[in-house]
């Protein structure tokens, strides 16, 4: 019998087919549930977005009427039920614990219930979070764009099936050990976030106070997010520092790479993967040259970034605004950092127009910014680049460490549920601690 998801992952336990030991149910009888039927009180209506760390976060779940709850008894939840997402992100898992009120399922989720007392849903939940299940899904949907787990496919899932005592021991072990790893990951993610906040704080200080700090005299500002600015700075409209560029691609599309504005800056679009296919008509595309600014001034709150500095020749869609920098008045990197500072703080909100939250180019050019003398601009840039390099270096090491911790977590889950490690002795041997210490030392974070 074909079972590559077991063989490839070194399973040492006996195995069973899911349909023989568990039942699967999903919402099928009230597909027409509308969002306006959600109520403030009543039975919970659980969806995959309510899954958090393998449990249901009841505080985020919607509520439905008792009539809706009673329509399908098969999906009325019980303590200990295993929930598995079948749409979108396949295989997201939660075990029902702490059920203090009636609850039912929204669409997109299976409820899995044991047919035998020899199956622990806590253990099965860990199996589904392992590479065993990932490989099962990959095997069944190889080459397919389908992002839905069908019940008749899921029922054929063969999975490791040790005795009940071992299942419980493995589940307890993974509850404990993954919680330690998750806590370490959370601390590192918090460090990365704090680095971003620190850079924003330093940017605010330098863009509103300059490099001389307490020695600076301040004057009243018309700058709406900085009431006072250094008195020796000018308050200059952006139209004196930027000029809207006009350069249509025309028929020479083959001469230019297709660019896009992302969190990483102005970078080539990934055309080969299909995410940036070339259009048939380039008449609305603009040429972008090195040292030009690319601005995204529409749907401001939704875009990942509204400003980027180009380092190469290319072209962008007409949705972007391209601007030349007046190098006689403003340092290239200073105006980039300043516009990035404006972007990060969503400081363009007072200038939004329309439902799409557009900032019109001419409106942008009329905005005044506090402008230091050229020499001080360069000093500010030097300090910001120093902070940026330092934050980037620490963030890269920390993110690499996070990736390694996630890899270890995944490998640990798979090894435990397939019996490659004896969980009763593994933790006592100190191996998890040594592995975590090794990751920390290797990444230097």
Explain how this protein is built:
The protein has 445 residues and is α+β, with helices and mostly antiparallel strands. The chain has three domains: 4-161, DNA methylase specificity domains (Adenine-n6-DNA-methyltransferase TaqI, Chain A, domain 2, Alpha-Beta Complex); 164-227 and 372-445, Orthogonal Bundle (Helix Hairpins); 234-369, Adenine-n6-DNA-methyltransferase TaqI, Chain A, domain 2 (Alpha-Beta Complex), CATH 3.90.220. The protein has twelve helices and 23 strands. The chain has helices at residues 4-7, 18-21, 66-69, 121-128, 131-140, 151-154, 164-209, 332-344, 361-366, 374-417, 423-426, 431-443; strands at 15-17, 22-26, 39-46, 51-52, 55-56, 62-63, 82-85, 93-95, 103-105, 109-114, 158-160, 218-220, 228-230, 234-237, 242-244, 259-262, 265-268, 286-288, 293-295, 307-309, 314-316, 321-325, 368-371. The strands form nine sheets. Strands 2-10-7-8 form a four-stranded antiparallel beta sheet. Helix 10 (374-417) runs antiparallel to helix 12. It is elongated. 31% of the residues are buried. The model is unreliable at 272-276 (pLDDT under 50).
Summarize the topology:
Elements: H1 4-7, E1 15-17, H2 18-21, E2 22-26, E3 39-46, E4 51-52, E5 55-56, E6 62-63, H3 66-69, E7 82-85, E8 93-95, E9 103-105, E10 109-114, H4 121-128, H5 131-140, H6 151-154, E11 158-160, H7 164-209, E12 218-220, E13 228-230, E14 234-237, E15 242-244, E16 259-262, E17 265-268, E18 286-288, E19 293-295, E20 307-309, E21 314-316, E22 321-325, H8 332-344, H9 361-366, E23 368-371, H10 374-417, H11 423-426, H12 431-443
Parallel strand pairs: 3-9
Antiparallel strand pairs: 1-11, 2-10, 3-6, 4-5, 7-8, 7-10, 12-13, 14-23, 15-22, 16-17, 18-21, 19-20, 19-22
């Amino acid at each position: 019998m074909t079972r590559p998801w077991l063989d490839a992952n070194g399973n040492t336990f006996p195995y069973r087919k899911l349909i023989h030991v568990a039942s699967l149910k999903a919402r099928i009888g009230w597909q027409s549930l509308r969002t306006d039927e959600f109520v403030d009180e009543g039975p919970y209506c659980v969806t995959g977005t309510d899954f958090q760390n393998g449990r249901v976060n009841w505080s985020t779940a919607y509520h439905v009427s008792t009539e809706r709850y009673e329509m399908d008894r098969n999906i009325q939840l019980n303590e200990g039920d295993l929930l598995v997402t079948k749409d979108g992100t396949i295989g997201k898992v939660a075990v029902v614990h702490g059920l203090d009120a009636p609850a039912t399922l929204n669409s997109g989720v299976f409820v899995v219930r044991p047919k035998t007392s020899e199956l622990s849903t806590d253990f099965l939940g860990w199996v589904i979070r392992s590479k065993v299940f990932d490989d099962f899904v990959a095997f069944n949907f190889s080459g397919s764009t389908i992002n839905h787990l069908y019940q008749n496919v899921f029922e054929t899932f063969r999975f490791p099936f040790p005795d009940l005592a071992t299942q419980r021991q493995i589940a307890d072990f993974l509850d404990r050990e993954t919680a330690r790893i998750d806590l370490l990951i959370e601390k590192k993610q918090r460090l990365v976030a704090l680095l971003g906040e620190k850079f924003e704080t330093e940017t605010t200080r330098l863009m509103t106070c300059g490099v001389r700090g307490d020695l600076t005299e301040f004057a009243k500002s018309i700058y709406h997010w900085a009431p006072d600015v250094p008195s020796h700075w000018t308050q200059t409209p952006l139209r004196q520092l930027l000029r809207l560029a006009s350069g249509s691609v025309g028929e020479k599309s083959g001469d230019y790479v297709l660019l896009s504005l992302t969190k990483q800056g102005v970078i080539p679009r990934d055309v080969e993967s299909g995410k940036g296919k070339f259009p048939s008509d380039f008449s609305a595309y603009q040429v972008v040259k090195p040292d030009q600014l690319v601005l995204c001034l529409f749907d401001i709150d939704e875009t990942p970034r509204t400003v980027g500095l180009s380092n190469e020749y290319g072209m962008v869609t007409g949705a972007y605004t391209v601007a030349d920098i007046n190098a006689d008045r403003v340092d290239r990197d200073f105006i980039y950092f300043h516009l990035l500072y404006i972007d990060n703080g969503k400081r363009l909100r007072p200038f939004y127009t329309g439902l799409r939250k557009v900032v019109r180019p001419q409106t942008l050019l009329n905005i005044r910014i506090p402008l230091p003398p050229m020499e001080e601009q360069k000093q500010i840039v030097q300090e910001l680049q120093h902070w940026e390099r330092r934050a980037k270096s620490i963030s890269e090491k920390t993110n690499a460490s996070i990736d390694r911790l996630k890899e270890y977590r995944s490998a640990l889950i798979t090894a435990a549920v397939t019996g490659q490690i004896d969980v009763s002795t593994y933790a006592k041997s100190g191996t998890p601690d040594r592995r975590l210490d090794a990751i920390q030392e290797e990444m230097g974070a």
